[in-house]
Design brief:
Layout (H helix, E strand, L loop, with lengths): L12 H10 L1 H5 L19 E12 L4 E10 L2 E6 L7 E6 L4 E4 L1 E6 L12 H4 L5 E11 L3 H9 L5 E7 L25 H10 L4 E7 L2 H4 L3 H15 L3 E4 L7 H6 L6 E3 L18 H8 L3 E2 L10 H9 L23 H10 L4 H6 L3 H6 L17 E14 L5 E15 L2 E4 L10
Parallel strand pairs: 1-4, 1-5, 6-7, 7-8, 8-9, 9-10, 10-11, 11-12
Antiparallel strand pairs: 1-2, 2-3, 5-13, 13-14, 14-15
Zinc ion binds next to loops.
Length: about 425
């Protein structure tokens, strides 16, 4: 029976999400009814804590795209096979008719709620949507990172890693009503402090982020980029560069980037993108890719164009990772979540296996994550996502208000992280402050 519930206070969201996963009736309010998939808890016998049974498993890390059961014990995957015995499992999650993937990894999100104006709460937007691991792309800089670690990374259920903004203030300055970015004063770009912060937090910081658009870095984008690269090189980690509307042309920016570095917002429209005036992929983009520079999507509020994506894909340029750049100003559309972003790429012609690869295996290979994320291999962390692949007519919108009619949509149903089940919840997103 479904019972009405009051919206939880911000501080209790995490607790609520757990509760929602544990107590079926609470989740009814959100309409997915996933709890019906969960069998009764039985007394523990020898065997598995949880069996995800009967789903179509898509795990590009093992080239599996077939019906498999996944057995979990002590927070780890212990078997992936056909017809594992239900009697051996303490609890069964019925995945029949569902797509089962490794817990997804989104390498570009903003979850520093309350400090970066674009920040959103992690759990309702990530783990509740099939995304067990995220990389916050530069919301925090050296001065604001300790708070990010203490109040977000250490507290939320989603696994949160970070790219440290080269600006000490991170993305705390910029909002719709205060459109002044973190690098307009180049004095805020401080490699020394960035290096020190990374050395103290290497377990969770995976690289450096720099945003180069004019409202953020003014006319000294190239100097800012060089300072960011200096810090990244010193600590031996990759650099993620936000492109678009830059003072310096993209080919010059790319010439500063090396193997393992990441361009985000690759498929943006208008100026500063990867296409020339005739819609052809710039030769400098191809040569950067040839030397190991990686293209990430980073959909965002202003950085994904169907037109650009269609032209680039037609010319054989495929992004290595598909990320959402979900934040306060796009979470209610056009981004919504990673699953919707992946669905847009299904419409663009990528296969289901190809899109899942770009949100699991490829991100895991790109950054130095701890082993066992983005895969369902035996021994890996038991991070699993269940989706419905719904057929119908879905109008998808890009960042330029262009739409396309797609016919398949990935809809998150349930998430398992380290063996623990989280329901799919759609929670109201409240603007901080
Ligand atoms: Zn971003």
């Amino acid at each position: 029976m479904c019972m009405g519930i009051a919206r939880p206070h911000a501080h209790t969201r995490r607790q609520f999400l757990r509760q929602a996963a544990a107590v079926g009736s609470l989740v009814c309010a959100f309409g997915q009814g996933w709890q019906n998939l969960l069998g009764m808890t039985k007394p523990m016998q020898s065997g598995f804590d949880l069996l995800v049974k009967g789903g179509k498993v898509v795990d590009p890390s093992q080239r599996i795209s077939a019906f498999r059961d996944i057995a979990i014990r002590d927070g780890k995957v212990v078997a992936v096979a056909e017809n594992l015995n239900e009697a051996q499992a303490r609890q069964v999650l019925d995945a029949r008719g569902k797509i089962v993937t490794p817990g997804l990894i989104d390498v570009h999100v903003h979850v520093y709620e309350g400090v970066a104006p674009l920040g959103i709460p992690a759990d309702p937007n990530c783990i509740a949507k099939g995304v067990t691991t995220v990389v916050d792309a530069g919301s925090a800089g050296a001065h604001t990172f300790p708070g990010f670690r203490r109040n977000v990374i250490n507290v939320v259920d989603t696994r949160v890693f970070a790219l440290l903004n080269i600006s000490v203030v991170g993305q705390s300055t910029y909002s719709e009503d205060n459109p002044y970015g973190e690098l307009l004063n180049l004095g805020y770009a401080n490699p020394k402090l960035a290096i020190r912060t990374i050395e103290r937090n290497r377990d969770v910081i995976l690289g450096i982020k720099v945003r180069l658009s004019r409202p953020i870095a003014g006319e000294h984008d190239l100097q800012a980029l060089k300072l960011a690269k200096e810090a990244a090189s010193a600590v031996g980690l990759p650099l993620m560069v936000h492109i678009g509307d830059t003072h310096t042309p993209l080919p010059v920016i790319l010439s500063e980037m090396s193997k393992g570095d990441v361009v985000t917002h690759s498929f943006r429209g208008s100026n500063g993108g990867i296409l020339d005036d005739r819609g052809m992929v710039l030769k400098e983009v191809r040569s950067a890719m040839d030397r190991g520079v990686h293209l990430d999507v980073g959909h965002g509020a202003g950085s994904f164009s169907f037109d650009t994506a269609e032209k680039a894909l037609k010319q054989g340029v495929v992004p290595g990772t598909i990320s959402s750049d979900v934040h306060q100003f796009n979470v209610n559309g056009p981004v919504f979540d990673l699953a919707t972003t992946l669905s847009k790429f299904l419409h663009l012609g990528l296969t289901l296996d190809e899109v899942i690869q770009r949100a699991s295996t490829n991100p895991a290979n790109l950054f130095g994550f701890p082993n066992g994320l983005g895969t369902l291999k035996v021994g890996a962390a038991a991070d699993v996502a269940l989706f419905s692949l719904v057929e119908g007519d879905f109008r998808f919108e890009d960042s330029l208000k262009q739409t396309r009619l797609g016919h398949q949509k990935l809809v998150p149903v349930a998430t398992v992280k380290a063996g623990r089940i989280y329901g799919s919840a759609v929670m109201p997103v409240v603007r901080a402050g």
